[in-house]
Amino acid sequence: xxxxxxxxxxxxxxxxxxxxxxxxxxxxxxxxxxxxxxxxxxxxxxxxxxxxxxxxxxxxxxxxxxxxxxxxxxxxxxxxxxxxxxxxxxxxxxxxxxxxxxxxxxxxxxxxxxxxxxxxxxxxxxxxxxxxxxxxxxxxxxxxxxxxxxxxxxxxxxxxxxxxxxxxxxxxxxxxxxxxxxxxxxxxxxxxxxxxxxxxxxxxxxxxxxxxxxxxxxxxxxxxxxxxxxxxxxxxxxxxxxxxxxxxxxxxxxxxxxxxxxxxxxxxxxx
Length: 271
What we know:
The chain is 29% helix and 8% strand. The chain is α/β, with parallel strands linked by helices. It has a single domain, classed as HUPs (Rossmann fold).
């Protein structure tokens, strides 16, 4: 059972105080459904304010790649709570431009909760001594440099905010705003405030708030991850088609595709 207790009364969605050991998941699929219904038709900023001000989801962090469109979500977060933890996976394989952009945005937006998550040095020495695992086992590389460090950092959080958007790829086309992360037994909530934003919405927000662009966007990189596994994208191609080009891989592993058949009735398919 998660902290959600009633659908119609937001005051009862606040985290409960436990007086016993609770090993069950923090949130259930029904909790996500209720939150999706509660915030249907409300804009992203209003939703974030309600989630944070009313403490609807417990301990919350945002996970950011400081990529091509990250400034939009980070700016929204900064308008509500600039001290919110921002988790950045410092894989050791990023473009130098990404690291500089991270520092620029954090300073510009006053993000005081930035946390850089790095791979375990012992694991790297044992499993990627040459630093070339990405070239023959990209899944294993992501596991070492992203999945494991993030899993450890998320241990103290009940929910995370992501910047995923439906237009980015076919695998994200039907994401809901709220979904349960089933990658482990913790049952954390994933919140996707920008899921229904279009590319035009993103561009307009950048212009309205005079946000700096990632320097690689103008060079043909609409989606930016680690340098070895990110390629330029031709006009008209899927924006994420430049990620892990030549591999049957579309995600790094921190977001796990879900089969529609596994979802309960009334729940939007989760990426």
